[in-house]
Amino acid sequence: MPWFPMFVQLNGADALIVGGGKVALRKAEKLLPYGPRITVVAPDFCPELEALPGLTFCRRSFADADLQGPPALVIAATDDKALNHRISALCRERRIPVNVVDDPEACGFLFPALVRRGRLSVGISTGGASPTAAVWLKERIEKLLPPRFADSLDRLEALRPTLKAEVSDEHARAARFRAAFERELAVPAEPAAEIPAGHVALVGAGCGKADLITVRGLRLLRQCTALVYDDLIDDGLLDELPADARTFYMGKRSGHHAAPQGEINAKLIELARAGHRVVRLKGGDPFVFGRGGEEALALRQAGIDFEVVPGISSAIAIPGEAGIPVTHRGLSREVHIITAHTRAEQQPDYRRYAALEGTLVFLMGLQRLENIAADLQAGGMAGDTPAAVVSGGNSAHRAAVRAPLSGIAAAARQAGVEAPAVIVVGPVASLDLYADLL
User: Fold this and answer.
1) 264 and 333 fall within a common domain
2) Is 252 a catalytic residue?
3) Has 138 been annotated as catalytic?
4) What kind and span of H or E run contains 314?
5) Dmax of the chain from CA atoms?
6) How far apart are CA 302 and CA 419, in angstroms?
7) In the sheet where 199-204 sits, what is the strand order?
8) 3-state SS of 177-210?
9) What is the number of domains present in the chain?
10) 179 — pLDDT class (breaks 50, 70, 90)
11) 341: domain range?
């Protein structure tokens, strides 16, 4: 008997996974893009599972009380068959949808082979008869879809309210919708990137919304089989992944490192040697204080084929978002990009930058803003030099604060600016091109 396909709204719903191994990891990776609140219960968790963002972990054995609430769905993913069957029986008694790995008879629902392109989800199931057949069909559907199908859906969705208001006749409206869809299909397809297996692409995602990534970067993302990604990545980019792509969160933020750099290097090498087409997705540009150079060297030394796809650096994009050009005729003919992030035992001296002309851009320097301003003035820079502190892109708290160098630290503190933020010092910091155009 075939299984009936359903599409369920999981955004904000509670989901329970019992088990902490690689199978639980794969189930969590499939669920995460659909927005549920996932709780994982197990005595131990594999590192890749623990690295996934947004999960709640309970390091203990399963208890009947875990089904109170109740959760919207339950996944039994342990290697204890008796426990899996017990969880299945409890869920069926409580009418909770349950999936038991590798045991269709104990399941209340199955995980389909998924094709996902933005808002599009295609689920394929053979009722447990042949997962291989489901994957075969999924791969062929993925090849049939135009590369920018998700973008087309977004445009068609935006068109719906206008057509509903303009065309009252249902049949005429349907014809207009059909014509709009066919125009979307007529858009020339992108050429395939043809990424070889065992390959790593170091891709800069740019700063801010998902559509700031390069066309090349997006193609690679849509064809990868494994993604290693950082903080400050727009969630919309994760929607572009093939449904079966493995994801590894290894974000690095000041004071909160999800993984040491050596571990990230090792993961890239491990995935490539396993035959994956890997995308290492980094905010901004990989080579502007993003440690892309270290990763490239590690890959080269390991004999791994790799490429680099540049992105828009926060040093340029974030000031630009606030209407500050880092160069401007008559004000600044040069720009200097400086990292303020150093090892804790080092005490950086910023006085030497005071003699530089043009624009100074400091990255990762919000915690040292007072020291930066004081050192620049001690080095001979005038206290009335324009300065700005800007947070934007995917920052949780967006702000653009302008003040003279002597008062910029106090102004940023009063405004409650939060990291990550970009510090700009020089005449261009006084500009706000958006305001000046009003």
Assistant:
1) no
2) yes
3) no
4) helix 314-321
5) 81
6) 35
7) 246-249, 226-229, 277-282, 199-204, 305-309
8) HHHHHHHHHCCCCCCCCCCCCCEEEEEECECCCH
9) 4
10) confident
11) 321-436
How far is it, in rounded angstroms, from Cα 97 to Cα 73?
Answer: 5
Tokens at 42, concatenated = 């197990």
- Of 279, 234, 276, the closest CA to residue 118 belongs to 234
Instruction: Tell which residue, 216, 219, 215, 261, has the closest CA to residue 241.
Output: 219
CB 351 within 8 A of CB 383: no
Secondary structure of residue 231 in the 3-state scheme: coil
User: Do 179 and 80 share a domain, yes or no?
Assistant: no
Which position among 230, 234, 285, 375 bears the catalytic label? Answer: 230
Q: How far is CA 260 from the centre of its chain?
A: 19
pLDDT of 193 above 50: no
The gap from C-alpha 356 to its chain's centroid, in whole angstroms, comes to 36
Angle between helices 408-415 and 369-378 (to 10 degrees): 170
Least confident of 135-144, 312-321, 412-421: 135-144
Token digits for 339?
């990292």
CA–CA separation, 357 and 345 (whole Å): 29
Tell me the pTM: 0.61
Which token pair is 403? Answer: 């003040």
Are 294 and 335 in the same domain? no
Query: What confidence score (pLDDT) does residue 264 get?
Result: 93
The pLDDT tens digits for 276-308 are 999 999 999 999 988 899 999 999 999 999 999
CB 187 within 8 A of CB 152: yes
Confidence class for position 438, pLDDT limits 50, 70, 90: very low
Candidate list 80, 103, 231, 252, residue with the active-site label:
252
